Inverse folding.
């Protein structure tokens, strides 16, 4: 009925039930300009659809107008709490529906333009930050030759499982912007090695127990370097605050078997957990002075079998999901 009323004004894709609705959202994504969502549908109802759109962050990019016969205050509040842009109760006037659709689309377009302006300004700031982190990391690369290649890889190897994690679960409340910040901050994870003796860092063969303890100091040293450099601005710089956490905790392990504090489970911040597994994966698939490079398959098997310490099961799933793409996108030259 509604399609007949507004079909001459808009190009419409219609879903028969909640399941098909989510399939179409997954297929078309942000190509959809607006969703008219009935609160009562076969199978999955409108509120469940809204919850799923929130979980997958579609609600941030696709405005939703809810259609309902239940115009109670509780229903309306529930809909708006889940992110709808407008709410239309039955029975409705086709001209009013059309006008409210146009108003919602116009408002969304203005919001997109404003977001674009802000994103551009933020991007310029982030680009400056990225240049500075690459310069700092390059200094470390001159001290320890292996670190240069590792630093080039770590941002990408951190970003890819993060992207998978945000689609797999909302447990950690991460946004896409958070993922960018974590990926940018990851390149500073080993900055503390700047104060570790080059002879130890570049030593061929295994470290002695005393040398291992010396290398372990880089986690706390890196934290101190960043804290001292940030001064009173740490709370104003999300990337730097994230880098401090990563430096401090990226060698912790999920079963408390890591260092420097022996934290376990989700007592380890998720940003440090992701960089931890990215750090280990890159170290395994790349040649080091003390070992040859392992294949992607061998590296994955070693991580899954806890040969390199224990990791968050969800992150292990994410790594398995993207392992082929990691090799193709980042390490393809090693297997040509």
């Amino acid at each position: 009925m509604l399609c007949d009323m507004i079909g001459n004004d808009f190009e419409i894709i219609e879903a028969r039930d909640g399941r098909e609705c989510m399939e179409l959202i997954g297929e078309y994504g942000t190509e959809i300009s607006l969703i008219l969502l009935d609160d009562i549908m076969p199978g999955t109802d409108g509120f469940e659809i809204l919850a799923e759109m929130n979980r997958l962050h579609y609600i941030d990019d696709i405005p939703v107008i809810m259609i309902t016969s239940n115009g109670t205050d509780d229903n309306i509040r529930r809909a708006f709490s889940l992110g709808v842009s407008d709410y239309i109760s039955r029975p409705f006037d086709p001209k009013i529906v059309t006008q409210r659709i146009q108003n919602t689309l116009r408002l969304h377009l203005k919001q997109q333009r404003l977001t674009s302006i802000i994103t551009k300004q933020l991007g310029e700031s982030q680009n400056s930050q990225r240049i500075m982190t690459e310069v700092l990391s390059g200094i470390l690369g001159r001290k320890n030759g292996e670190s240069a290649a590792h630093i080039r890889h770590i941002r990408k190897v951190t970003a890819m499982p993060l992207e998978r994690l945000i689609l797999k679960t909302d447990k950690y409340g991460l946004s896409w912007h958070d993922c960018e910040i974590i990926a940018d901050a990851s390149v500073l994870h080993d900055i503390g090695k700047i104060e570790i003796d080059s002879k130890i860092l570049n030593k061929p063969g295994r470290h002695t127990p005393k040398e291992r303890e010396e290398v372990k100091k880089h986690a706390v040293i890196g934290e101190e370097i960043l804290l001292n450099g940030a001064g009173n601005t740490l709370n104003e710089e999300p990337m730097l605050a994230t880098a401090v956490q990563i430096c401090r905790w990226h060698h912790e392990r999920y079963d408390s078997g890591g260092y420097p504090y022996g934290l376990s489970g989700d007592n380890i911040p998720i940003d440090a957990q992701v960089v931890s597994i990215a750090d280990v994966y890159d170290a395994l698939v790349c040649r080091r002075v003390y070992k040859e490079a392992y294949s992607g398959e061998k590296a994955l098997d070693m991580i899954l079998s806890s040969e390199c310490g224990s990791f968050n099961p969800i992150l292990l799933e994410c790594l398995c999901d993207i392992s082929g793409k990691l090799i193709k996108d980042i390490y393809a030259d090693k297997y040509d």
About this structure: Residues 206 and 290 are 6 Å apart (CA to CA). The mean pLDDT is 85. The two ends are 58 Å apart (CA to CA). The chain has 14 helices and three strands.
